[in-house]
Amino acid sequence: MTEMKIDSHHHFWKYSPEEYGWIDGSMKGIRRDFLPCDLEKEMQVVGVDGVISVQARTTLEETRWLLDLADQTDWIQGIVGWVPLVDPRVESVLEEFSQNRFLKSVRHILQAEPDEFFTRSDFNRGLTYLKKAGLAYDLLIQEKQLPVSIELVDRHPDQVIILDHIAKPKIKEGEIEIWRRNIRELAKRSNVHCKISGMVTEADFENWTMESLEPYFETVLEAFGAERLLFGSDWPVCLVACGYRQWMEVVSHFMKKLSIDEQAKIWGQNAIGIYHLNLTPGKR
């Protein structure tokens, strides 16, 4: 397969303080709109061929908006949307999207939920419909939620699951041992994959170093192997700590010791396979 670079994780938004309250005062520079025209400029500079756009709000309105954007471009290859997994009518909602070729995965913002949410019968019931619909599930959590996430994954062994942002370890504090132990345990589940993304925003925005990130990269590489890792930028959130090109250079640096085939898997092949991307020319 010809090597392609696929950014498996980024966001678009039309900014408003009410809808994006999580963008606090420490996240300078991203309290504004970020739209396809902005990302396309970044992609052209660094040679990214396609992207997977990920939800940032818990609304069906946003999911439909992202799907419309995908239909309007040649390079948005897939969408990770939001659907109301706890709603008794979620199956009919999924049927609404079943004919849309761009919806590839669903995400609920579990990082904001208590541990009890992971065991809710309605949430787990909603997850059971994803495999039937041919959809993956993006797992967004903080490192402290890894134990309950492992239990969640064990309840859904046949569901394709993609861990976002390597489970947001406490890089800024330099804490690694508990996270490392739990990541290794989670990676024993072969249905779980992991995005190399969101690391600089868990570090010190102003003073992070390659050395501070390296142990975390090495851990996920050892745990998941090149066969289950995906490159993601987390643009534009990453801009609070580094530019798009800079993050690609960081990932390139950490992958230098890998074979050409292994690098190709992380840069794009894994995303193409896991998300079942259809890369035929002129997809519109």
Number of strands: 8
Tell me, briefly, the overall form.
globular
Name the poorly predicted regions.
none
Distance between the termini: 23 Å
- Biggest beta sheet summary: 8 strands, parallel
Report the order of strands and helices: EHEHEHEHEHEHEHEHH
Strand order, sheet with most strands: 1-2-3-4-5-6-7-8
Q: Helical stretch count? A: 9
Portion of residues in beta strands equals 5-15%
Share of helix, binned = 25-40%
* Cα-based radius of gyration, to the nearest Å: 18 Å
Average pLDDT, rounded to a whole number, is: 95
Write down the oligomeric state.
Answer: single chain
Structural class: alpha/beta
Explain what the structure shows.
With about 280 residues, this protein is α/β, with parallel strands linked by helices. The protein contains nine helices and eight strands. The chain has an eight-stranded parallel β-sheet with strand order 1-2-3-4-5-6-7-8. The two termini are about 25 Å apart.
